[in-house]
Write a structure and sequence with these properties.
The structure is a homotrimer of 154-residue chains. Chain A is α+β, with helices and mostly antiparallel strands and 154 residues long. Chain A has a domain of 90 residues: 2-Layer Sandwich (60s Ribosomal Protein L30, Chain: A), CATH 3.30.1330.40. Helix content of chain A is 30%, strand content 25%. The first copy, chain A, has three helices and five strands, in the order αββαβαββ. A five-stranded mixed beta sheet of chain A has the order 1-2-5-3-4, with helices on one face. In chain A, a hairpin with a 2-residue loop joins strand 1 and strand 2. In chain A, helix 2 runs parallel beside helix 3. The radius of gyration of chain A is 14 Å and the shape is globular. The two termini of chain A are 18 Å apart. Chains A and B meet through strand 1 and strand 2 of A and strand 3, helix 3 and strand 4 of B.
Amino acid sequence: MSAESNLQSLSIELPPAPEPMGVYKPIVIVDGLAYLSGHGPLNADGSLHKGRVGAEVGEEAGYAAARQTGLAMLATLRSELGSLDRVKRVVKLLGMVNSSADFENHPTVINGCSELFADVFGSEIGVGARSAVGMGSLPGNISVEIEGIFEVGS
Amino acid sequence: MSAESNLQSLSIELPPAPEPMGVYKPIVIVDGLAYLSGHGPLNADGSLHKGRVGAEVGEEAGYAAARQTGLAMLATLRSELGSLDRVKRVVKLLGMVNSSADFENHPTVINGCSELFADVFGSEIGVGARSAVGMGSLPGNISVEIEGIFEVGS
Amino acid sequence: MSAESNLQSLSIELPPAPEPMGVYKPIVIVDGLAYLSGHGPLNADGSLHKGRVGAEVGEEAGYAAARQTGLAMLATLRSELGSLDRVKRVVKLLGMVNSSADFENHPTVINGCSELFADVFGSEIGVGARSAVGMGSLPGNISVEIEGIFEVGS
């Protein structure tokens, strides 16, 4: 199964590819590696998952935010590449959780993105290296921001 | 216009290339990609822009700190490469703001660096992927720290 | 001296290579670069160095945690590569300290990892680019998390 056909059979619809919120490009490709900017949990209607995990929102809301962030990343990849089938491998994710100082379950939250990628790309090429950590704050008080490196083919 | 001539016509003078504050190199080049260590807002006189953005200093001071950090990164690049004209592309920046827990405008702050790079390298190759996020704390209470990946040529 | 013989002459024993705490791989190699996931200060008995540096634990405990994190990274590298002698260069580390908001000595803490790598690989190839920063929180309240990029050979 290809990533695009997996998306279809999972009935997953991607949000529109996000516009930059500053002076940057959502994606830059160099030597077969795609560097994705930090993405936020953008919904199809343009709204964002907001709130500090472990304080204003719970762990499950954080997981949902990470999954939505993953969908936004897929939208950026498809917009740039034409098809997600050109993704050869998830190389590395930096999963940043807007969390309270006493929050401890960042990996569980970022799994919301990683499990999506495993479903879409398969558990071998869809699962890469990762860090899952807690930030002091995030832009617009979004719950999660994730950046990533993907190997892409022609 | 080249990056070096842009610097001249903008009357921008770079601070001295920063010395490492620990056991690391300011820059490592591998396979045509230059990895820059996290840089701080180092002034020409050796002082640093300090203070938590959104608490001890305002957003405009944060912007100025990010611009100064960008100048320090350019100094490191020139010191290593001999000329900024060898920079082929800004690939990726991680812009880390020392900010209060309720600060929301990290992208605006990090634009201080990104707009400098756009001015120096041009808006195509000077603008790369980026994350702009809020840290719990930074070394010496500096306002901003930025690391980056640059494509470089011979 | 090779990295493996350095380890022996320093009487350093590595902990077991850490298992993933979520949906990720500890290491992914692409085009001669090994991307290591964020590692924590895992002891040989499976326990972890915990506590916020500058609040619950002191700077020296943070340094020890960073060194132990470096040992865990070496364990992952050896587990994947068979021998640490295949490491050609430390390219880049992102050293993340779980620290109080007023902590300022992140570089000193992360030196615990960097000095280990310099001892094992030598001060030329064992010292790369680096950022050392303060996080709002880390998984399981570990004191330090470090991710890295290493150049590896065959």
